[in-house]
Amino acid sequence: NAELISALKAELRQAATASDVKVIIIKAAGDVFSSGADLESLQAMQKFSFEQNLADSNHLRELFELIYLHPKIIIAQIHGYAIAGGCGLATVCDFSFAAEEAKFGYTEVGIGFIPALVSVFLIRKIGEGKARELLLTGKLITASEAGRFGLINEVLPNEMLSEAVNSFAEKLIANVSSNSISATKRLINDVQNVPLNEALNTASKMNAETRSSNDCKHGIQSFLTKNKPSW
Questions:
Q1: Does the predicted model carry a pTM greater than 0.85?
Q2: CA nearest 22: which of 162, 185, 158, 154?
Q3: I need a labelling partner for 193 at 20 to 30 A (CA). Which of 42, 69, 176, 222 fits?
Q4: Are 68 and 121 in contact (CB under 8 A)?
């Protein structure tokens, strides 16, 4: 609902500038990662004007954009169901780990709705053909199927999920540069769906900018002196 979206946006914006935050994990406190819009939200939509619906849509858009473009790494830790907008939440994260019993689906077409916002990110992530199969059928798929689609990175027994995600996050914290994470995420976004020459110009400029960063200087010096860089 709108309140949850606002709370997530506030936390993510605070984390974006927090020097002691390098990796963010989004996970559920209950039995379900996210089943999408709650019942009261769906009922309220029946009475919304176009302007209200547009404002509500943009509220969710801002959350998805904030996650996708966030300067820190964001990991989705998924158990139970990730449905509709909840599946969209998992889609926009940098990495997604799921329990074996988790279920995924963009079920909007089954209630006369459309998976509008998530389609933009899903096509980028898994390609048009696979996205069509999921978005046009609205079918639920298992975690292992989601892995084959390229929707999630790893499937684990539920009792191992939290430990695996934390271990993965700790390795990132120890082994990768914060500045490089932020720059690489921007690079991935900026070079997609633009002409080759424009993409290469962007990449060359970011290459040159990054070479002068303190992280790059530290990393290269550590490599040359055969020392492990301290991130």
A1: yes
A2: 185
A3: 176
A4: yes
Is 159 one of the catalytic residues? Answer: no
Model confidence pLDDT, tens digit, residues 187-212: 998 998 889 899 899 889 888 989 88
Q: Active site residue: 40, 108, 128, 133, which one?
A: 108
CA-based radius of gyration for the chain: 19
Encoded tokens for 143: 């975690």
Contact criterion met (CB below 8 Å) for 154 and 98? yes
Task: Return d(Cα 105, Cα 35) in angstroms, integer.
Answer: 10
Mark residue 21 as left, alpha or beta (left: phi above 0; alpha: psi -120 to 50; beta: remaining).
beta
Residue type, 158: N
Q: 3-class SS at 54?
A: helix
Burial of 85 (0-12, 13-18, 19+ CB in 10 A): buried
E-strand stretches of 32-140: 73-78, 81-83, 95-99, 103-105
Rounded to whole angstroms, the Cα distance separating 134 from 137 reads 6
Pick from 65, 79, 4, 80: which is nearest to 37 by CA? Answer: 4
Percent of the chain's residues with pLDDT above 90: 74
Q: Which sign, positive or negative, has the C-alpha torsion 171, 177, 182, 185?
A: negative
